[in-house]
Amino acid sequence: MKPVLTLGVLLALSSAAAQTCQGRVITHALGVTCVPRTPQRVVVLDAGPLDTAIALGIKPIGAVGKSAADNEFVTYLKDRTQGVANVGVIQQPNLEKILALKPDLILSAKIRHGELYPQLSRIAPTVMTESVGATWRSDLLLWGDALGRKAQAQTLLNQFRVKAKRIGQRQRQVSVSVVRFLPQQTRIMHRASFIGTVLDEAGLTRPASQRVNDFAAYVSAEGIPQMDGTFLFYTSFGDPKTTTQNEMLKHPLWQTLVAVKAGRAIAVDDDYWMTGTGILAANRVLDDLAKTLK
């Protein structure tokens, strides 16, 4: 069983690190790390820290692709990731490629790469958030702190919240449903997800079955009635032909949904509605909502 770092232990470690650190001391999910005052060679091991770094004006030297099936960076950042080295995929970063880049800071999350933390820390100072997705707002601030731009990260978050409330205030009479199609799996997204928190920030109402403080419901075709809302947004992870999308959209129950019959079942980009989990992705979602919820 791994030891739990109590607040007292973290404070003691932080104090000790501060005495020897020539940069800045960051307390994170896996301990205390001395990072450069101004990191220059940053490697990111998930879409969230990639989104965060670019939002804060820092172009990483290396990043991971989305999955073994799609070893590319999220498409909404394509124009801003030219020249960034690919160092594997989220599920399996390539440590040799990371080492060869000589980074001075690595950003990730415990839930993704906690087991790799010792190896990554030997390559470069490594800062990890506890989780990803629904925690994206606090993740933004921690990664922003590690990058030396916490104040800028807070400003971006404040601006997002103002924008979200402005959009949501115009749409109090609608309910918003969100569904994600994956290979052999269909998810109805709940509140404790990235997209759930974005909708919550906007104050948008969810269908009764989706007002649940967990990640998602995993359903078969019989669960299609739970997908209904005034508006139904759906995404597909990768090629829709490899997911459950075609099966669901052709099912007789899909045609009975109020949103479908009213022409308000709308396909949206999985990369920023689901995968991106960062401030840039969240703002892109708001843009979609502003154009659609009329």
From TrEMBL:
SUPFAM superfamilies: Helical backbone' metal receptor. It is found in: Cell envelope. Its main location: other. Residues 41-294 form the Fe/B12 periplasmic-binding domain. Residues 1-18 form the signal peptide. Keywords: Signal, Transport. Transmembrane segments: none annotated. Belongs to the bacterial solute-binding protein 8 family. This is ABC transporter substrate-binding protein. It comes from Deinococcus antarcticus. The lineage of its organism: Bacteria, Thermotogati, Deinococcota, Deinococci, Deinococcales.
